[in-house]
Specification:
It is an enzyme of class 3 (hydrolase). Keywords: Calcium, Disulfide bond, Hydrolase, Metal-binding, Serine esterase, Signal. This is Carboxylic ester hydrolase. It is built from 13 helices and 19 strands. It is an alpha/beta fold. The longest helix has 27 residues. The N and C termini lie far apart (51 Å).
């Protein structure tokens, strides 16, 4: 398709959803475009680099009349380029497919990670799309959360939660049809974190809109995720002690060391999470000395307060009455993340104070307190219980993504892959496991349309000793288009000596097992594992 069609006239009769009204549309030809996208930013596809591509950038702004919103959808349409180095037909570089990409945090899309995903898709010939849900590119919700003090902008939450996603799929297909003269043969979605939650929304609320969805580390249970972000800070507030990060880190490192070989391989990765929780007692570290980076390397003693907050974080949130209500992060995960994790503290020579994760802090201050000046740093246990319940009651229909009845998605031949790093520092991998179990309890023959992968050694979306599952998007496409269901999926793991080893991750409930008799080649295979109900 030639760039001569990249002008607003081509899209002058573009249909929009009945609830939407066009504000503006620009069509910008882009030539000699080059990009190099690392694998981690593509999430589930390999790194890619290219030069001299051409595409048509359609940036469309629309509103829902009466809601005072302004939502931007950006679509990149591959076009003919005489100097293109794509493997597709240089006179028609589009691969006849749509790839939508998700957001992260409070950003629905149109930010750096979204653009990296679009760059990767463009290099493989996809028409690719993202939406900002009318929220812009701010990393926090402070600009758009409130209409005024005491009044949450519910339309913005609705757009973030689901409405903009349905619009994006509908409008994107119409843009493609106007430019190429036909719609996409197949449509895919790829995202992680907020993007993973968006993928789940599409499966739950818009079955049939996308043929295949890859959802990484999805924030499916929104209320519980917000509670989880704040839970360690509440534990420290209730105890009246805030440990140095070096204490928390030392306990985590020792847990990894002691639990490493539970899976039969010493590699610096905890795969047997439940076994580790049974085998390792963080209180056994109390009284040990540790060199503390926050104090210039001075040796301090690990406190009971440090062991207590680590233990509570691993085992998950409890109500005031002691009843466990949600899952924790797992041994091996980085709880402090150099001062930005959910067990972070701000420290001086005199001691430490809490440092709440901004995702949970913003949520409770802006949406539950409904105030731009609120401060939940000193939140109590009882108040956290109340605020999580208020989140469910007031905003559940807007943001929760825990509908497990995917029967209609299955009936429409949709295919869904979720994946979650086991050392995720923000969202418990147990939550995604729980979601998969609950779907399996409701929809028969779940593996015919939905598969879930746990990735030992992978942090939140990327990072850690394990690389990303870079073949999952390709495996999803083979599942959708050829009926080849995904089985083992390759990952590269960095071992303790710094070398890289090829391994696999497995469709739940299987786990990867090492064949000790293996000399070279495929030493890791998938084996069935007993997974108790969560």
């Amino acid at each position: 398709m030639s760039l001569h069609l990249c002008n607003p006239t081509t899209f002058s009769s573009l249909p929009l959803p009945v609830s939407a009204s066009l504000l503006s549309l620009t069509a910008t030809p882009v030539t000699n475009y080059s990009a190099s996208v690392p694998a981690i930013y593509r999430l589930t596809a390999p790194a890619i680099a290219y030069t001299n591509l051409s595409f048509c950038n359609i940036t469309l702004t629309y509103t829902h009349p009466g809601q005072n919103d302004s939502i931007i959808i950006e679509t990149w349409l591959p076009a003919a380029s005489s100097s293109s180095n794509l493997t597709t037909n240089p006179t028609n570089p589009w691969n006849s497919r749509l790839l939508a990409v998700g957001g992260g945090g409070y950003q629905a899309g149109r930010f750096d990670l979204s653009y990296a995903g679009m760059q990767g898709g463009l290099g493989e010939g996809y028409a690719t799309i993202t939406t900002d849900a009318g929220l812009g590119s701010d990393t926090t919700a402070r600009r758009w959360a409130l209409l005024s003090e005491g009044n949450v902008n519910l339309y913005n939450l609705l757009n973030l939660g689901s409405a903009s996603l349905g619009d994006m799929g509908f409008i994107g297909k119409e843009i493609i049809k106007a430019f190429y003269g036909k719609g996409p043969e197949y449509s895919y979605f790829n995202g992680c974190s907020q993007g993973g939650r968006q993928g789940m929304v599409l499966a739950q609320r818009f079955p049939g809109l996308f043929d295949g969805i890859v959802a990484g580390a999805p924030a499916v249970y929104w209320s519980e995720a917000m509670g989880g972000f704040q839970w360690p800070q509440v534990v420290m507030n209730e105890g009246g002690e805030w440990p140095f990060g070096c204490e928390v880190d030392a306990i985590g490192e020792e847990a990894t060391k002691q639990c490493d070989e539970l899976d039969g391989v010493v590699d610096g990765i905890v795969q047997e999470v439940e076994g580790c929780l049974r085998a390792f007692d963080p209180f056994g570290m109390v009284g040990r000395g540790v060199e503390c980076a926050q104090l210039g390397g001075r040796v301090i003693t690990i406190t009971e307060a440090a062991a207590a907050v680590v233990n509570k974080t691993w085992h998950g949130r409890e109500r005031v009455d002691g009843r466990k209500v949600w899952y924790g992060l797992v041994p091996g995960s980085d709880l402090t993340v150099n001062g930005s994790g959910i067990v972070a503290t701000n420290c001086t020579e005199e001691g430490c104070v809490g440092r709440a994760n901004p995702l949970g802090k913003d949520w409770f201050e802006l949406f539950v307190e409904k105030s731009s000046t609120a401060d939940v740093s000193n939140m109590t246990h009882r108040k956290l219980d109340r605020y999580v319940k208020a989140t469910k009651q007031d905003f559940g229909s807007l943001l929760e993504t825990d509908d497990t009845d995917l029967a209609e998605f299955k009936r429409q031949s949709g295919k869904l892959i979720s994946w979650h790093g086991l050392i995720d520092q923000l969202l418990s991998p147990k939550a995604t496991e729980r979601y998969y179990q609950d779907v399996s309890a409701i929809v028969s023959e779940t593996q015919e349309f939905y598969r879930h992968y746990e990735v030992p050694g992978l942090e939140h979306c990327f990072g850690g000793p394990s690389g990303n599952p870079l073949e999952l998007l390709g495996q999803l496409r083979a599942w959708v288009e050829q009926g080849i269901a995904p089985e083992a999926s390759p990952v590269n793991v960095t071992r303790l000596d710094g070398t890289t080893e090829a391994r696999v991750v497995c469709p739940y409930p299987q786990k990867a097992k090492f064949d000790a008799s293996c000399i070279e080649g495929a030493c890791w295979t998938c084996e069935n594992a007993i997974r108790p109900p969560l």
